[in-house]
Amino acid sequence: MIIVSLPYLVTEVLDLDAALANRLYGFAEGALAAGGLAGGIGAGVFANRLTIQKSGNLIIACAVCVFPIGFSLMLFSSGLVNYIVMTVCCFIVMVFSTVFTVQIMSFVQAETPRNLI
């Protein structure tokens, strides 16, 4: 959803100059990449505290982080304010989703029988 909607929202929906919108979209993509890196580091740092039974909370956290984007687009007319809210929320979504992905992949690998690895 973010990969498809983010370029459209930044370049078409927000009231920004075309050149500025394209530059800001590049920064937003960088924030997504940084969120992925931060999530990977966080998965390693918090590996002992993460359990598979609570992994659903990470998906819920991702969903909750999308709400501020919608509220911002409804309430604020400033393109820059909406851009900042979207970028921060997308960064946080990437952190949580990367931690979830690493956790689930580790679980699947640990549960897979040796002869199938």
Describe this structure in words.
The structure is a single chain. The chain is an all-alpha fold and 117 residues long. The chain has helices at residues 2-13, 18-45, 56-64, 67-75, 79-111. α1 packs antiparallel against α2, α2 runs parallel beside α5 (79-111) and α4 packs antiparallel against α5 (79-111). The longest helix has 33 residues, at 79-111. The protein starts with a helix and ends in a 6-residue tail after the last helix. 24% of the residues are buried.
Number of E strands: 0
For the record, give the distance between the C-alpha atoms at the N and C termini, rounded to a whole number. 32 Å
H/E element sequence: HHHHH
Helix-strand category: mainly alpha
Strand content bin: under 5%
Tally of domains: 1
The average pLDDT score comes to 90
The stretches of 5 or more residues where confidence is low (pLDDT under 50) are: none
**Individual helix count:** 5
Classify the helix fraction into a percent range.
Answer: over 70%
Task: List its salient traits.
mainly alpha, 5 helices, 117 residues
